[in-house]
Amino acid sequence: MRIRIAHAISYDYAEPARHITQVLRLTPRDHDGQHVMSWRIEPSIDGRLRASRDAHGNIVHSFYADGPISSLAIRIEGVIETIDLAGVVRGGLEQVPCEVYRRDTLLTGRDDALCRFAADAAAGAGTPLSQMHALMAAVGEHMTCVEASGRSGIGATAAFAAGEAIAQDIAHVFMAGARHLGMPARYVSGYVAAAGGLPHGDGAHAWAEVHLDDYGWIGFDCANGLCPIDTHVRVAVGLDYADAAPVRGSRQGGEGETLNVLVRAVAAEGRFANQ
Amino acid sequence: MVAFDEMTGSGAELRSAYSALDRWLKDTPAETLALRRSQAELFFRRIGITFAVYGDAESTERLIPFDIIPRVLTKPEWIKLEAGLRQRVTALNMFLADVYGPKECLKAGIIPPDLVYRNACYQLEMVDFKVPHGIYCHIAGIDVVRVDADTFYVLEDNARTPSGVSYMMENREVMLRLFPELFATHRIAPVDNYPDQLLATLRSVAPRSAPSDPTICLLTPGQYNSAFYEHSFLADKLGVELVEGSDLLVKDDVVYMRTTQGPKRVDVIYRRIDDDFLDPLVFRGDSVLGVPGIVGAYKAGNVTLANAIGTGVSDDKAVYSYMPEIVKFFTGEEPILKNVPTWRCREPEANAYVLDNLENLVVKEVNGSGGYGMLVGPHANKAQIESFRHKLKAQPDGFIAQPTLALSTCPTFVASGVAPRHVDLRPYVLSGANGISCVPGGLTRVALKEGSLVVNSSQGGGTKDTWVLDA
Amino acid sequence: MLSRTADSLYWVSRYVERAEYLARILDATTRLTNLPSTYGGAGTEWQSAVSTAGCEDEFAAAYGEANERNVCEFLTFHPDNPSSIRNCLAQARSNARAVRTALTSEMWDALNSAWLELQRFEKKRMDREEFARFLDWVKNVSLVFDGSAYRTMLRDDGYWFSRLGVYLERADNTARILDVKYHVLLPANEQVGGSLDYFQWTTVLREVSALTAYHWVYREAVKPILIADLLILNRRMPRSLASCYENISRFLDHLGDAYGRHGPSQRQARKTLTGLSNTKIDAVFERGLHEFIEEFITENNRLGNTIFEQYLQ
């Protein structure tokens, strides 16, 4: 499927900022399941944009701008071609030993309840793969996915206790469970095209990947109850949301920030198809 | 359990290093000692050498008790100890270069890979990054304890931001003021060249692109940090600016200080902020202590951080238990300093033994520090032991266990007069581009409560001046 | 030097100066209210003390009607008053602690000892006598700190920033006294005559410790217009606005010379100083004393901001 993505992040400051630094993980890489046809990141103001690669192999852009800045918009546009590999991720850049992804982080810590939950979910299942499918089903059933719209994450334990969470925390809950069962698990931030008619996605989304000896990395999207298909575009991976966050920033001055985000990810048929 | 006494050995003799001190103690009335002690306390309070205790809202600033009776080491003892420290720190630096580089020691099976990879202190940002001059741990504090006339054990390596060196120096200062006569009758190796050595170390590791007179600063979390006094003390002695995160800014991967004359470029940062709080763009996003972009500047090679990011993977308590093998693997030598025998609870047989012998062992949380998250079996009550039993069963790889060591004792002036109290020793080892240096002695910490083995200042420990006799 | 260090040095001095000023207000007000009522004012002396200290809103929120007990409590140790003597000394020490190494040991000692001593005072129950001792002690702390700075600090930017703090605060304080008491200095009141006003006037002089100085300078009975002259224009009087600005301008020029660049702070301070030099007190009264003072306070605050922007951020 050919997916066209338009993502705009804009900030307005009541009091102009003197300096802004942003770290952007907003650029996908190629792997067997996806090919980047075109991709552009454009800040609305002059500054220095430097590309590098982080520990996980993600493409990172650091953006520095001097003020006074009263508003800043970052526009991302691109076209990706995907194929459905039933969630299996192959042919990507893997820099970190998968053992690293068994670590607990602030956002993926787990309490007794969550551990019991994961153990119960996997109890009947045979192979590690079917255990993970069982865990995905259980998380999908236990957790209600709510739209992000300005909410920020609270971490696996709190989200699990609440029973409802935004997509990133549902991924955290699944990761915490998988790690408890001894599996390396990582966080994925990306986009889901509206085309598939999936209940959650239609824009920015988050899910998890688990490393299984026989398959390598496989994605699990608990919010949508499936392993990622060709509607899913992987952008960045990490130990948790904080590690793979699309934007991390800091500024001097610039009190009274308001943030607006617009994301569209659509199947690009017809006139986009040959672009 | 009878502990080795620094002054009287097994109790009957008088060890030669202490002969003059023994005479002095016998000749000096208790009232004089008490008077000197209160003068020492006044001195410390006036210079403001206080520390903050975490979780203690009542009195946020306290003095660490100072004991006026020094702890004495002979020159031969120190020579051996120093050789062991140099070897240990050399191995620590080689280990760090290896785990962030070729990973030979993991391939050779010296240490289980998951201990490194799953360790939160193993900073992925540092993988395949070449640190300036190949040195990771510029300032190390190695905690050693003594169990008999010839044996020192390393209790813990501190490779992140070890503190206490200001106490080492101020203790000497106050002793010189209060007891000049003791310094006339002993030949004691000086410690006041420590700042010069530290400065030379920091200058030597400046980025190669830095000017020949690099700008150095000391980065502190601020005045509410428990070690703030030390930070300001060291900055003053080094003659460098004491900066907080907000005093630094990063532009285009270069670090600057905000000064009254505009931004000034910084080349070397002696940072006393933990990795997690160093850069909100890379580590904890909620940190207000750090400097956004500083990791980028570091990785661009424009600034040196001392210590490097990610040194914590080498002083973790689980990694500690492999240090003898690590020393041997990297230096090709037998370790001069021993490790305390350690049961790794991650190993099922070891854990079974530990569970059976909890009342005799010291159990430590792998990621705990400062004496927190620790069980001292012989001093614990039933409930504490049971709570640890539960923890050990639930998460065995979070713990190690060690025998309760008979830490050596040293005469100490307490309420009941002069009595033996358990001590440890933290020497400070500096690693620069031009080699390793180590001032003679270090900081002696003393558990002031009778029979107590916990010397941490946060838990009622005190300090002593440490003498290395030069003859 | 680090901007934060300069900022802290500046604020250490300001807070110590402010603590002393509060002690003077309390001292002078106590004297005034101790007079038999026939000599006293309108019975609003304590409210006036709160206004002079510049914390009317905070006080109103904590108490309501002003009396000796609650005003003394509020201006000395009250936790809700950010500008109480206690909080000023605490802030001074906290700023000093953050930049310990930029202070001489004598200056640190003055502040640290004051802090330790303050805690002893705080625990005591204070009768009038003890309270008077306390106020004297506060004034003394300021003298010791000021003296130790004067005697032990290197004459470089650190010293100049610390002096700027002293004189900006002092100018603000003197101007505030005039702002609150201007009405007793107006000619209309002079005609009322009698002892009532006399004690109000001498209170103003006492608040800036200038009663003796007045007689030496003017060799005349106390007159409102001369009081205003002394406090605003007389450069021989160390708390006058003119004297403060003479110092502010001098220390800013030292900074500008040392850094090789003069900027908006230097220009602004010089302008205010020139204005004070070329004014006669009659003209001030003609234009309106109150307006003159309000304008000065605004300008003085503006200079504080300019210094902050030029050097301290």
UniProtKB/TrEMBL annotation, chain A:
Pfam families to which the protein is assigned, alphabetical: Bact_transglu_N (PF08379), Transglut_core (PF01841)
Statement: the UniProt record of this protein carries the keyword Transmembrane: no
Biological process, per Gene Ontology: proteolysis
SMART domains: TGc
Coiled-coil residue windows: none
Keywords in alphabetical order: Hydrolase, Protease
One GO MF term attached to the UniProt entry: peptidase activity
Ranges where the Transglutaminase-like domain occurs: 159-224
Protein name: Transglutaminase-like enzyme, putative cysteine protease
Highest classification ranks of the organism: Bacteria, Pseudomonadati, Pseudomonadota, Alphaproteobacteria, Hyphomicrobiales
Automatic annotation (TrEMBL), chain B:
Domain of life assignment: Bacteria
Pfam family, one: CP_ATPgrasp_2
Domain Circularly permuted ATP-grasp type: 70-447
PANTHER family associated with the record: BLR5612 PROTEIN (PTHR34595), SLL1039 PROTEIN (PTHR34595:SF7)
Protein name: Uncharacterized conserved protein, circularly permuted ATPgrasp superfamily
Upper lineage: Bacteria, Pseudomonadati, Pseudomonadota, Alphaproteobacteria, Hyphomicrobiales
TrEMBL record, chain C:
InterPro entries in the record: ATP-dep_Glu-Cys_Ligase-2 (IPR051680), DUF403 (IPR007296)
Record domain DUF403: where: 1-312
Domain of life: Bacteria
Pfam family, one: Alpha-E
PANTHER family per the UniProt record, alphabetical: BLR5612 PROTEIN (PTHR34595), SLL1039 PROTEIN (PTHR34595:SF7)
Protein name: A alpha-helical domain with a conserved ER moti
